[in-house]
Amino acid sequence: MTENKTEQKSARKVLIAMDGSKHALFAFEWYAKNVYKETDNVIMAYCAEYNINVPMLLASPVAVANIVEQHEEAVLKVFKKLDEIANRYKIKHTLERIERPHRPGEAIVKAAHQQNIDLIITGTRGLGTIRRTILGSVSDYIIHHARVPVIVCKHGDHI
Asked: Residue 39 contacts by C-beta under 8 Å, 6 or more apart in sequence?
């Protein structure tokens, strides 16, 4: 007896960690050329970080407001750049800003878990062993803590 099974195309949920760097852009392009499927639900996640420290918070409210405004403008520029590259490859996507109460790697893993992501794509800056040990590595964190497959794309500068 033969069963007539119809293959159903299921959409993968793919989170691409983007920070606007050449390493992240390389990872996106690698994904677009080598892994992308038209059925993919692509989320380009930008982990925005405010560079405000305690002395800045003690400054005048106007100074803090200016810093926040400059940060928001920078985020919009990154989003425009991400939109342009995705559109160049004709990839349907959503842009998502991940707020960071945590380090970027933690925020990306948390977002992936909350959204039931099937695959994470990230770049790597190619830090040396000592710098990676001291500073930590976003891609290392994602690899070791994500509950789904992770593809780390190494830029040609570090191959």
From this structure: 9, 10, 11, 12
CA 96/CA 105 separation, integer angstroms: 15
Assigned token pair, 143? 């690899």
Buried b (16+ CB within 10 A) or exposed e, 67-96: beeeeeeebeebbeebeebbeeeebebebb
Helices 104-114 and 138-145 sit at what angle, rounded to 10 degrees?
40
Identify the CA nearest to 14 among candidates 3, 4, 27, 1. Answer: 27
Which structure tokens are listed for 135?
Answer: 């500073």
Judged against a pLDDT cut of 50, whether residue 148 lies above it is answered with: yes
Axis crossing angle, helix 61-88 with helix 22-34, rounded to the nearest 10? 30
Give the start-end residues of each E strand in 52-131: 93-98, 119-124
Interval 48-105: pLDDT, tens: 766 665 566 666 778 778 878 888 898 899 899 999 999 999 999 999 998 766 688 9
- Closest among 44, 20, 16, 14 to 125, alpha carbons compared: 20
Q: Which residues contact 147 (CB under 8 A, 6 or more apart)?
A: 112, 113
